[in-house]
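Progress narrative, work stream C.
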Amino acid sequence: MGEDNAHVDRAWADVDRGRRDLDWSIALGEPDDAAFVSDAGRVLLRRMASDLEAFFGPGWLHRAVQQHGSAPRPTLAPYWPSLTKLPGFVNAVGLWARLQLLTLDQPPGVEVLRKNLQSNPVGDEFHHHVTLARLAVQARLAGARVEVEPEKPTGGPGDLRIGRGDADVFIEIRGLGPGTALMDHEANADRARHHLWALESRYKIRWAGDLPAQVTPQWQIDTEHTAREAAESGLPRDVLANDYALTALPEANAAKPSLASPDLALNQGHRVLNAIAVKARQTASAGAAWVWLADNGSLWPLTEFAWYPLAQKVDTLARFLVGLFEDHPHLLGVVVTSSELRFAQPVDNETAARPKGAGIRRTLFNGLVRDSIVLHRNLLVPAQFRLLVDLCASEPTWLDDALHRLDVPSGLGSLVARDHRHLVGPRPRPDLHGLYVP
């Protein structure tokens, strides 16, 4: 494995020093060095490098990094197994599968999607179009008609139009990331941790307890004084504070030290409502539309809403959006999906059918979990509602279904080395309720 890492390090060093252009073969890694994939996975890695280079165009990956400085790495690095190993491989397979299947099927608008992905390799825009591509592929696999980035009657592109039988659904997609309060909270926690880690190294102690709600100069002085006392006395010493407890432990006494971030309760309702309202206004010319809000860290991580039972989430959002439906008569419904969630223990699939909509919880192919909530206005359009609920419910299986279409019949599990397959995540448990509509 040391030689494997050296090969990767040399390739990236050559890129960083301008000796070599970054391409998908470097990002995906040398197949023979990838201990976490099977022989079939190594074959696919070579195919993926060629196909992704063809989709985005020769030299695109290098130009994207050069044009936008360091910004694309946080956006694109999750798809690079050479850096992120097995999680990157799983993500890259998902990216490749959705783009390759759309290239193969050529639904209307796919070339517009390609150009938008090529032109927007950074942050929210790239994530938006990757999500759009996944939903389009899921709809295709469900036998639906698909048009990507359809034109609105008054001009300008929409995001997605799908049809099945009599159901014809126009969808506008919006991602919503964490607000400034959460980012400030995390930045404060990072500053506190780095300060305490520096003191650990200097005084040979370990910390256990709570991080402060706000890093201040006085807190930094107090923690250094406490660390010095613990080191000199060989005994635990506490930082005195009213709103948190923090103890410096001599290394000999620190079996399992830990640091906990302060609690943060955020009310994100105004941001969610505003994001949906903006998209509702943008879809007014479409005649009748749905808004799909992909939560990327606003509602689910640190809000009281995140801990509600699934049925309560549906009812809470339904009450919250009553005024929105009144203000926008063309809006048929709203879909709100969580980011991918990690639970300490496996969770059962769940479908919560409620009077105003449905909640869908599914374990995905990577072992993570997504909550999806589909809400409709009082005038229910049953076929459209069911199509969107089915789309959410089928997310765990879309990748294996897509791989089958792309001549990888045994699915994702066959691409991962046998001793790494448990890391991909258990197959989703069946939904014993069988309820997709109220």
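Work stream C, second folded protein:
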Amino acid sequence: MIPLTLPAAASQLATSVDELWRSVSELVLTVEEDRPEGLDLAAVDEFSERVIEMQGSVASARDLLRPGAPLVPVLPEVAASLDDAHRRYWRDMRGYAAVAALRGASRRHGGGLPAWRGAVEASAERCEAPFARTAEAVNACWQEICHASMPRRSS
């Protein structure tokens, strides 16, 4: 990893959070807008609710990252919001229980549900790389803050 300055690390974080926001928003759109008409299944409703909750966590982090605003005071809250979104992603979108519930519902009910489920799974998978880049960016910010706070040695 190439050392960054804190402003460069903050810019990288803002860029990665925006990229994550776009990916998660695509997932929300797929879940909500492409959902088969007249579908009223608990597994689908619960998945939809979890996706929107995850989007809310990403939105919280994004709202805190204002251009030109100092990063240090808000980074703990940004990191916590992104950690929450990341946990929700792996537990509620990609975890065995969530995937098995959707796949089971699509097998039982058929219709447009299998195609929707496939589109949802593909969209969820596209969020993985933005989540990883965002975690790397948060770590870079913490490293720069810690490096900047270390006393300088005189030669």
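The chain has a mean pLDDT of 89. No further action is required on this item.
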